[in-house]
Design goal:
Elements: H1 25-51, H2 58-63, H3 65-73, H4 76-85, H5 87-103, H6 112-128, H7 133-144, H8 164-174, H9 181-184, H10 187-205, H11 208-217, H12 219-227, H13 235-250, H14 260-267
Helix pairs in contact: 1-4, 4-5, 5-6, 6-7, 6-10, 7-13, 8-10, 10-11, 11-12, 11-13
Length: 268
């Protein structure tokens, strides 16, 4: 007699293993890495016009550089990355911050956003003519105390206190549309015209003290004194030198005031 054997039941149940849910961190990390990599590639390409100015086609890159650089200014991440690649950019930003700090100590009569742009314009115009921006700041401080709407007893106007007939001539030289007070009280145009005028006087007189005196009294008057061997006033340029010295000392630099030749080397 055969016994029917019961089939052996084997439990093949599969135990479910609980895996932690996939987090979004890896995706975020990959995204952040992509942004950084793209930023590095973009900014490296922007530095090519400065590193290899003679490469074929490099001028095509340089042509759009200024516009792209202005875009970078509005993105702190790009600005920081670019400063790592280009130390000169980092130095520039530091100087602009120092200029802005000086401007903000005064009542300019301008909106905050305009003072920020003004700091950049002062830097750009000063370096365009190879001046220390703090030297231009010193001149503005003595001339107008940074009051944009300032008008002198003789009729000089704006931040750099330019006479209207002088400003009109300079505007023509620079291709700036002349609209009288509207042009003179435009802080950015006033700086452009003032720095250009000062640079022309420095070129003519070959002496910082004489150029500053001519800026204040007029070049014709100063040249007349020199031709007649008369004493040229010195109190104005001494005030500028003293203000410049104070600004430089505040940046932990020392400037000797006893030797005008050394000052010329620094300012011009």
């Amino acid at each position: 007699m055969f016994h029917k054997e019961e089939p052996m039941l084997i439990n093949f149940s599969i135990r479910k293993v609980d895996h932690p849910p996939h987090s979004n961190n890896s995706k975020k990390n990959r995204h952040a890495f992509s942004i950084v990599l793209f930023s590095l590639l973009l900014i490296t390409s922007l530095s090519l016009p400065f590193r290899f100015p003679t490469l074929p086609g490099i001028q095509m890159i340089a042509a759009g550089y200024q516009n792209i650089l202005q875009t970078i200014e509005h993105y702190p991440a790009l600005k920081f990355t670019y400063s790592l690649i280009n130390p000169e950019f980092q130095k520039k930003q530091q100087v602009i911050r120092e200029i802005l700090a000086v401007i903000e100590k005064h009542e300019t009569g301008l909106a905050k956003v305009m003072t920020e742009e003004l700091a950049e314009v002062i830097y750009e115009e000063a370096t365009r003519y190879n001046h220390d921006p703090k030297f231009i700041l010193a001149l503005i401080a003595i001339e107008s105390s940074f009051q944009n709407w300032s008008v002198s007893e003789r009729g000089a106007k704006g931040l750099m206190q330019i006479m209207p007939y002088v400003a009109e001539s300079i505007a023509c030289e620079l291709g700036i549309e002349w609209s009288g007070d509207r042009t003179l009280f435009n802080p950015f145009l006033n700086i452009k015209m003032g720095v250009h005028y000062l640079s022309r006087l420095l070129f003519d007189f070959k002496d910082t003290g004489l150029a500053l005196t001519a800026y204040n009294y007029g070049p014709t008057y100063v040249k007349g004194l020199i031709e007649r061997k008369r004493k040229v006033p010195h109190h104005f340029h001494e005030k500028i030198f003293a203000a410049y010295h104070d600004l430089v000392v505040s940046s932990n630099r020392e400037v000797p005031l006893t030797d005008d030749t050394e000052l010329n080397d620094i300012i011009i």
